[in-house]
Amino acid sequence: MKVVYTEEALRNLDDISDYIRQNYPTISETFRLRLQFVVARIAKWPESAQEVADQSGVRVVPLVRYPYKVFYRVTNQTIEILYIHHSSRDA
Q1: How many CB atoms are located within 10 Å of the residue 83 CB?
Q2: CA-CA distance, 71 to 66, in Å (whole number)?
Q3: What's the average model confidence in pLDDT over 22-48?
Q4: How far from each other are the two terminal CA atoms of the chain, in whole angstroms?
Q5: How far apart are CA 22 and CA 13, in angstroms?
Q6: Whether the Cβ atoms of residue 5 and residue 13 lie closer than 8 Å to each other
Q7: Which of 65, 57, 9, 20 is nearest to 38 (CA)?
C-alpha cells in the first residue's frame, strides 16, 4: 500500500527529529530506522494495529523502544499517517 504523511505528521516528525538530534544525537539513526520499520509494517498489515476508541477509522501503533505513537487511517489502498505523538499525550 502507498503511504502518505499529512502536513501535521510531517511537522510532528520534524519536531521529534530535531529534539532527538539535539538531546540524544546517538540514537537519531536508530529512531529513524525504527520509524521506517513500523511504517513498513503498517503498509504490509494495515489492519493489524489497534483502533482508537473515540476516532472512527483511526489506528495507532507504538514505536516500542521510543515513547511515540503513530496514528493513521486506511483509505482506498492508501495509508495516511495522520500524526505522531509522544505516548504521554492524548490522541
Answers
A1: 21
A2: 15
A3: 94
A4: 24
A5: 14
A6: yes
A7: 65
Cα 4 from Cα 90, distance rounded (Å): 23
71: which strand partners? 60, 83
Q: Collect contacts of 60-67 with beta carbons under 8 A, ≥24 apart.
A: 60/91, 62/87, 63/31, 63/34, 63/35, 63/38, 64/34, 65/30, 65/34, 66/31, 66/34
| pLDDT given for residue 64 in this prediction | 86
Q: Which pTM value belongs to this model?
A: 0.90
Instruction: Say how far apart CA 18 and CA 13 lie, in whole Å.
Output: 8
- The CA distance from 81 to 78, in Å, is 10
Q: Which residue has the cell 510531517?
A: 10
For 3, the grid coordinates are: 503511504
As a dihedral over the C-alpha atoms of residue 36, residue 73, residue 90, residue 61, rounded to 10 degrees, the angle is -40
- By residue count, the chain amounts to 91
Distance, in Å, from the CA atom of 83 to the CA atom of 55, rounded to the nearest integer, reads 13
Cα–Cα distance measured from residue 36 to residue 82, given in angstroms and rounded to the nearest whole number: 15
